[in-house]
Design a protein that fits this description.
The chain is 1% helix and 44% strand. The chain is mostly beta strands and 340 residues long. It has two domains: 194 residues, Jelly Rolls; 121 residues, no CATH class. Strands 1, 2, 3, 4, 5, 7, 18, 19, 22 and 25 form a ten-stranded mixed beta sheet that branches. Strands 8, 9, 10, 11, 12, 13, 14, 15 and 16 form a nine-stranded antiparallel beta sheet that branches. The relative contact order is 0.23.
Length: 340
């Protein structure tokens, strides 16, 4: 089975806007590849509508029918649609990233170049799960204003073109670095000041951001001052703590070893929905990561059905926060197979 990699998806199991296979021999790309599977509704009666925990073994009913794959910058979802599906995220995790202290208040605006180039990156994930990329930013696109969950951007310019603050302190923006912002509460305004004669917005696109309880990370090339935590190079293998908040089942594998494995139904309101792994030592560099999740019965229409992957590292002064997009990547092997 060789899945097609969908970069923009209208909704779960919906119509794909654009799809392409990664060419062979390409370097790792940002984000994890999420492989979606449709599971039997109600597990063929093994999970009645009026109960929160099934009597059946979830392993017998999950990952049953492959549907599609798409790239996602972080694992930070609220699946508000009623369930019966499974997801497997595959790729690499590299702890060698700089992060701002979290949680933080992030505000300001960033200039975006929409041209479809590897030098100009932009991915915005809305609360609905819809993904807006640089390919959407064309002359006739109306923009967006509202709630979002994560932003990945490589800005167009420096200086007066961009202005961002973290807890009221100016945050240095560099156009040779990618920046990632994730938050449970974030509003954005995506707009352009003028449109060029062609299909592209000619670099006139901007995004205004207001995020509370946010995590912010940056890729290589960004400055290290202005109150932003720098990488601790004195510790070769710090201990990292991973946690998953999920309704329902979840697993986390690092370098082939399961460090979280709770493949059973859990209500998001129960303490058991938060699963924490024992501390694990990791050297800098890429580590194979696989995250698995299944969603079954939603008893009410307002069930959030979350899955969020957190990390922390006391020795690096990294507080509990969502694993940042800057730490996640994928290769050709992740797009070619939905397996582990």
């Amino acid at each position: 089975m060789k899945p097609m990699l969908f970069v923009i998806v209208a909704s779960m199991f919906g119509v794909c806007v654009w799809a392409a296979e990664k060419p062979a021999g390409t370097p790792p790309s940002p984000g994890l590849v999420a492989h979606y599977f449709a599971d039997p509704a109600n597990w063929n009666g093994a999970w009645p509508d009026n109960v929160s925990v099934p009597t059946a073994d979830p392993s017998d009913w999950t990952f049953t029918k492959y549907e599609y794959s798409r790239v996602e910058p972080v694992i930070n979802h609220l699946f508000v649609k009623k369930g019966w599906f499974s997801v497997r995220w595959t790729g690499h995790f590299n702890p060698d990233v700089s992060v701002a202290p979290a949680p933080a208040t992030v505000k300001g605006r960033i200039n975006i170049n929409p041209n479809n180039s590897d030098q100009n990156e932009f991915t915005l994930v809305l609360n609905s799960g819809e993904v807006i990329t640089r390919d959407n930013l064309k002359r006739r696109y109306a923009g967006y204003a509202g709630a979002a969950r994560s932003l990945h951007v490589k800005p167009k310019g420096n200086g007066n073109q961009n202005g961002l603050t973290v807890d009221g302190i100016p945050y240095p923006i560099a156009n040779d670095s990618a920046f990632d912002i994730s938050a449970a509460s974030m509003t954005v305004r995506l707009y352009h000041e003028k449109a060029g004669p062609g299909e592209q917005g000619q670099g006139a696109w901007w995004i205004d951001i207001a995020a509370e309880g946010a995590t912010l990370s940056r890729g290589a090339g960004a400055p290290t001052d202005q109150g932003v935590a720098s990488k601790d190079t004195a510790i070769d293998e710090p201990e990292y703590i991973f946690e998953i908040l999920a309704d329902d089942g979840c697993r986390l594998f690092l370098d082939g070893k399961a460090i979280i494995d709770d493949w059973q139904a859990r209500s998001e309101e129960s303490p058991e929905a938060s699963r924490m792994a024992k501390p694990v030592k990791l050297a800098n560099g890429n580590h194979r990561i696989v995250v698995e999740y299944f969603q079954g019965q939603s008893l009410t229409d307002n069930d959030h059905d979350p899955i969020v992957v957190y990390w922390s590292c006391p020795s690096r002064n990294i507080q509990r926060q969502i694993v940042p997009a800057a730490a996640l990547s994928h290769g050709e092997e992740d797009t070619s197979s939905p397996g582990r």
